[in-house]
Design a protein that fits this description.
The protein has about 450 residues and is α+β, with helices and mostly antiparallel strands. The chain is built from 14 helices and 13 strands. It folds into 3 domains: about 15-115, no CATH class; about 115-150 and about 170-275 and about 375-430, 2-Layer Sandwich (Nucleotidyltransferase, domain 5), CATH 3.30.420; about 285-355, no CATH class. Helix content is about 40%, strand content about 20%. β3 and β4 (about 210-215) form a beta hairpin. α3 (about 55-65) packs across α4, α3 (about 55-65) packs across α5 (about 80-90) and α7 packs parallel to α14 (about 400-425). This is Transposase IS4 family protein.
């Protein structure tokens, strides 16, 4: 007879298993995959139906929910777990014989990469995103962008079409990070990887994906993001119409991207800036003024005509109709004496057009408190990337090829969105970010 401690342990594992199965049930119930299933069944036709399409699809979803980085690990779990087989829809009378073979999964995954099937799979993801727009208050107002490098399971380029151990789509990517250490010293770290880059556009409030694309690792993030935004404008314009703010790190610092966001879509860019000024230049004179200067980070200052003292001007807001940023005299705004007031050519305020420097001057002034608050929300992308690595096992994946990775990520992001929607529909919005129990 089992001891009390053993019984408690069994009960705990049962509760844990039930929790996992409940998460899977939530995902399966909230995936809009009927069109995809019909296409897969139509494609199979009257062929062998030893392993039903819907059961195989459900088991693939289960592999993502239960963090199985390979098909073999998924098969072992199906062979062991009768409850999971029943939930996926395999024939209960066959027992473990109902579990598909490795070659059956290989053929099924190959079918998912067929163009028409892949497009139906993408529609599953886009349908979930549209449901988030309808059901989650404010979804899509604050967008964030970031690129994530994903190493290929292969370590080298393939030697030819028949080389199955090599990688035929990937190449080398490199990211440089500049930071200050504890002593205030500027240091640089370099990350190199052989594989791909996932370019992700996500909602930073809910930490859920909105759109993504996969490229080789060497592709620069800015042109890929511009292409992704233009694609959204053509096929899903409601996403850009709902957006108010776009947040990204300095890797996306690009005048063309800023113009695309603001002048074409009225989305306020909150993008960190690189210092591209050369020859040690600290400030530049605002055109049309004699004593107003700005630095590369958008801080506007006036220079006292009597003493030469430089003081930061008070930000007074953005005038959209004029396309200008308004700044006030610091002496007037903060209430201190200015020795050069009598000879100062400025009135109480100055207006600076965004066209003065499109990278430096943006609709949300870089020197404002709101810009800093909005930029802080960019960390939502880092948390999504962390979930991809830890909760969805991309650190341990066994994928070769850009097309395979794209299909897998479509599945992952669909599971992420479906589970979040399921939590909300069960009146558990506080758990929508607890997507998957992290691996021990």
């Amino acid at each position: 007879m089992a001891s009390i401690a053993q019984k408690s342990l069994f009960c705990w594992h049962d509760v844990e298993a039930l929790g996992d199965l409940h998460r899977l049930r939530l995902v399966l119930e909230n995936l809009p995959d009927e069109e995809l299933m019909q296409q897969l069944e139509q494609r199979r036709g009257r062929g062998r139906n030893e392993y039903p399409v819907r059961a195989m699809w459900n088991s693939l979803v289960a592999g993502i929910v239960f963090q199985h980085p390979s098909i073999e690990q998924l098969r072992r779990e199906l062979l062991r777990n009768g409850q999971l087989r029943d939930l996926c829809g395999f024939d209960p009378t066959r027992g473990s014989d109902a579990v598909p073979s490795a070659s059956a999964y290989s053929r099924f995954l190959s079918t998912l990469r067929k163009r028409s099937i892949r497009e139906a799979l993408v529609r599953v993801f886009t349908s979930l995103v549209d449901q988030c727009y309808r059901e989650l208050p404010g979804f899509g107002r604050r967008l964030g962008a970031d690129g994530k490098g994903i190493a290929s399971v292969a370590r080298r380029r393939g030697k030819g079409a028949g080389d199955r151990r090599g990688e035929h789509d990937a190449d080398w990517g490199c990211h440089e990070y500049v930071y200050q250490n504890e002593r205030g010293e500027v240091q640089k770290s370099v990350k190199k990887w052989f594989g791909f880059t996932v370019h992700l556009l996500a909602d930073t409030a809910y930490e859920l994906p909105v759109a993504f694309t996969v490229s080789r690792a060497s592709k620069h993030e800015v042109p890929v993001m511009r292409k992704l935004i233009r694609s959204l404008d053509r096929h899903r314009p409601h996403i850009l119409k709902a957006a108010e703010v776009f947040t990204a790190d300095r890797g996306y610092d690009d005048g063309t991207l800023i113009d695309l966001l603001w002048h074409e879509h009225r989305i306020k860019p909150v993008i960190d800036i690189r210092n591209l000024w050369k020859d040690g230049e600290q400030t530049r004179l605002v055109p049309g003024t004699r004593n107003v200067v700005y630095d590369y980070q958008g801080t506007v200052s006036c220079v006292c005509m009597a003493t030469g003292t430089q003081r930061e001007m008070a930000y007074r807001g953005f005038e959209e109709k004029r396309g200008t940023l308004k700044y006030g005299c610091p002496a007037v705004h903060y209430g201190y004496e200015c020795a050069g007031k009598a000879s100062c050519p400025l009135a109480s305020c100055i207006r600076i057009p965004l066209s003065t420097d499109r990278r430096v001057f943006t609709p949300l002034a870089r020197s404002s408190y709101r810009w800093k608050r909005e930029y802080a929300k960019r960390t939502a992308l880092e948390r999504i990337h962390s979930r991809l690595d830890r909760s969805f096992s991309l650190e341990l994946h066994t994928i070769r090829g850009q097309e395979k990775l794209s299909v897998h990520l479509t599945l992952v992001f669909s599971v992420m969105s479906a589970l979040a929607l399921g939590r909300v529909r069960e009146n558990q919005p506080n758990q929508m970010r607890s997507l998957i129990r992290p691996a021990a």
